[in-house]
Amino acid sequence: MQRFSALSLVMHGLTGHRRWKPQWRKAEPQPAYDAVIVGGGGHGLATAYYLAKEHGLSRIAVLEKGWIGGGNTGRNTTIIRSNYLFAESAALYDHALKLWEGLAQALNYNVMFSQRGVMMLAHTVHDVQVVKRHVFANRASGVDNEWLSPEEAKAFCPPLNIGPIRYPVLGAALQRRGGVARHDAVAWGFARAADALGVDIVENCAVTGILRDSAGAVAGVETTRGPIRAARVGVAAAGHSSVVLGMAGVRLPLESYPLQALVSEPVKPVMPCVVMSNTIHAYVSQSDKGELVIGAGTDAYTSYTQRGALHISNHALEAICELFPQFRRLRMLRNWGGIVDVSPDRSPIIGRTPVPGLYVNCGWGTGGFKATPGSGHLFAWTIAHDEPHPINAPFTLERFREGRLIDETAAAAVAH
Amino acid sequence: MLLIDCPYCGERPEIEFVHGGQAHLARPARPAEASDSQWADYLYLRDNLQGVHAERWRHTHGCGRYFNALRDTTSDRFIATYAIGESPPVGTADTSRGRGSP
Fold first, then answer.
1. 3-state DSSP call for residue A18?
2. Cα–Cα distance between A391 and A405 in angstroms, integer?
3. Residue A184 class from Cβ within 10 Å (0-12 exposed, 13-18 middle, 19+ buried)?
4. How far off is chain A from B33, nearest CA to CA, in Å?
5. Could you tell me which residues are beta bridge partners of residue A362?
6. Can you list the residues of chain A whose pLDDT is less than 70?
């Protein structure tokens, strides 16, 4: 791997930047591996990286049906925070947040992680009670979160309208360690670092079947580029998890919905932080290019179409125009949809499946990007040890049978 | 926005409806005798398939009635709508069910 440094930039500058090499190989699939990861998004690539780095597996492949980072990794609004209500969730997402804080150094790749603060608005008396409960629960479990009055929220985010609007701002919770990262760079950084450790990243390779041995355990996968044998298969296929696991006869407690996002034309810096409102379904931040990045709620019905209805994104835009009247004149450049796998308790599923050697990492729903490094780290542990890490032990498939739901539904019933 | 053909009212825009999830799920006849696994299957497991999906809708801002629909989740195209308690129209269901249904 060519390491990036100030010196390497100067040296390449002196040769007109003509000598940069591809950052990772275009690998051809080999007949057999120790472990195969299905899904080349951030979660899958991070899993492969940590499997190689921390668990010493040498022959690992990541199989991606399209191009890496082309699914939800490249379609989300890049919000990172860990102020979830329940202790199990806060531990899970804070594990990820701590990895984010050292990720650019660990990967030697600038993921543009910016802890500019995530502010969650409260618009009703009920919101105020729920958000304050979050603040207190988070502080009790060692996760930073603080309550701001409307005036303090306005001071932190000057463009915010705290006037008498339909859903007035009655206060906000602020997690200062939260923020955003560059989503493509996360996929590329993990791909480059995993490749340097010998991981084969195979694009345009869709899994079409799960191979089983005579005892019923996983023996590999059937793909559009031929069969690949592996004793361990980890599936990180987001919205398509039910489809991939269905190939092994495993049904999941998931439903896949379209989730939409939009970006505006680029403007000079105006939004200093991330602002989100669960109540009126609006999420907004400003990218380093200057575009406002806006997230909407999920569509009403299950679908695999990667598009959604206009009235859903309109709803988010109406809310944003009230909260930020000066954005009314901005043009939207693009809108798109991703397919998110929503679990009954809005918490992820990371663990074994009823099929020996087959592991699943899914159910991240509308908020998986923030967990990318933590998700990969814990999933790699689960695959390497054939049992969950203590942090993801509460998040296994068995929780639905055992009635141990981690119900973040009320906490974040909509996109987060 | 989808245009949905309510069996009772005719075609109406999607915003008049609420999606009611997978259709034809049978509640265990004797819940007290169902095992934890059977009960969890009924409550939580869904086909979530890629292809023709049988699902419930409720015409909340119209007649208020539930009905069933067959919709292709890869195109969002409706194939048929039919009343609660009826089986999917012949020739539209199982033969064309998509991937993900084990």
1. coil
2. 15
3. middle
4. 15
5. A349
6. 410-416
